[in-house]
Amino acid sequence: MNMKDVLSTIETEDIKYVDFRIVDLLGRQHHVTVPAYAVDEDTFVNGVAFDGSSLTGYKSIEESDMVAMPDPATAFIDPFVEEKTLNIVCNILNPDNSPYDRDPRGIALKAEAYLKNLGIATAAYFGPESEFFLFDNVRYASGPSGSFYHIDSEEAYWNTGKEGQNLGYKVRNKGGYFPVQPTDTQADIRNEMCTLLTQSGIKVERHHHEVATAGQGEINFRFDTLTRTADNLLLFKYIVRNVAAKHGKTATFMPKPIVGDNGSGMHVHQSLFDGDTPLFFEKGAYANLSETALHYIGGILHHAPALIALTNPSTNSFKRLVPGYEAPVNLVFSKGNRSAAVRIPVAAVTPKASRIEFRTPDSTANPYLAFAAMLMAGLDGIAKKLDPREMGFGPLDKNIYDLSDVEKNEIKSLPGSLAEALEALESDHEFLLAGDVFTKDLIDSWISHKRDEIQQVERTVNPKEYELYYDL
């Protein structure tokens, strides 16, 4: 849609309200709703004013006036509100209408512009696989008198002995991949999610139950350009959460909500194109990968310790990134190997579908920042001709988890905590500053916010500590 299309849709679809959406530094969406009769061409020229001091990572109170500038191409009709509402994603501007340097969506747009200016490619395509859990109940608290969390699901293996009506068919620990009904109790819910995603303009490819017990699922949608895919991912999470709520369930994209079972990742497929020409394909080479693709992989793996401060930016992320739960913690690449940080899909792949898959990220990432950072790492690899084969990053076509200790010691690993990842980002971020895509100010702000989160977690008494230390 363009501006005229949006204004026409408001009239022809009898839209009552227009919802303008922005995203804060950490990736949470916010919105302000305006009566449709008050939306006109001036709205798309002057934007919508808001208080930037009230959003995480934005302005301080003495300079808080900011502008949300609608992007008409993102408009869709909200399926969850009673009064017919059109939702539009916005870019963040300063009061003088200049781009705001900390706007995550603005950074994604700058990354795409930087790619084109380099002359390497005309477009970068991204396709995330964002896993999630649907629970029937969640309770948690953290305070001076006690801390706890409790989750429940009708599918959970721990409910095999639940009293009252119990029809069995529980999902075993690590046994939830592709079961049919009645074991898969959420097929109809995922169908509904997919229907609404399609109606909202997102092309769904497939959905299925995932490996973990207690209602883990995955819905794959079609790749798109970097910024548009980030838009789609936020819309995806919005639809998943609201359909779950409609059915009396709660959705979470937390990387590791369950102890002892698989977590939820966000494997990110990536490719570069020059017009209609795929730049990652070379027939007959290893995994049919071009030198450009290999250099891109070299950049991803070389900068991975810093990169995951943006792609896995929660303390919970590193509870998923441990061996034994299908989480890639080893910095190698391989064809078709899901134990590698970078996998090269080879099944049913055409030249235009040739791509790399970075398997480490999770959905606590702000997608605009994470996708932009991945692209910048890959472009740095191309510019410097970083060859992952010469850097000790593989290829390694073995199950890494089955290697001997000696073999494993030769493989570089990811940082073991968010604190270590932030230290890596602090010392390795020049690749993000190229083309003024990221700014030092934003990176410093990100590190500061994330270190504050670490302190909050570290200073909170953990129930496990009672078990370990109460009687010492």
UniProtKB/TrEMBL annotation:
EC number, UniProt record: 6.3.1.2
Keyword Chaperone: no
Required co-factors: Mg(2+)
GO biological process assignments: glutamine biosynthetic process; nitrogen utilization
GO cellular component: cytoplasm; membrane
Name of the protein this chain belongs to: Glutamine synthetase
Modified residues (O-AMP-tyrosine): 401
Domain of life assignment: Bacteria
Coiled coil: none
Domain GS beta-grasp: 13-97
InterPro entries listed in its UniProt record: Gln_synt_N (IPR008147), Gln_synt_N_sf (IPR036651), Gln_synth/guanido_kin_cat_dom (IPR014746), Gln_synth_cat_dom (IPR008146), Gln_synth_gly_rich_site (IPR027303), Gln_synth_I (IPR004809)
Residues in GS catalytic domain copies: 104-472
Keyword Acetylation: no
Self-association and partners: Oligomer of 12 subunits arranged in the form of two hexagons.
Co-factor binding details: Binds 2 Mg(2+) ions per subunit.
Alphabetized UniProt keyword annotations: ATP-binding, Cytoplasm, Ligase, Magnesium, Metal-binding, Nucleotide-binding, Phosphoprotein
Source species: Brevibacillus invocatus
Molecular functions (GO terms): ATP binding; glutamine synthetase activity; metal ion binding
Database matches in PANTHER family: GLUTAMINE SYNTHETASE, LENGSIN
Pfam families from the UniProt entry: Gln-synt_C, Gln-synt_N
Residues the entry annotates as binding L-glutamate: 262-263, 320, 326, 338, 359
Chain sites annotated for binding Mg(2+): 129, 131, 210, 218, 267, 357
Subcellular location: Cytoplasm
Amino-acid positions noted as binding ATP in the UniProt annotation, renumbered to this chain: 205, 221-223, 269-271, 338, 352
Family per similarity comment: Belongs to the glutamine synthetase family.
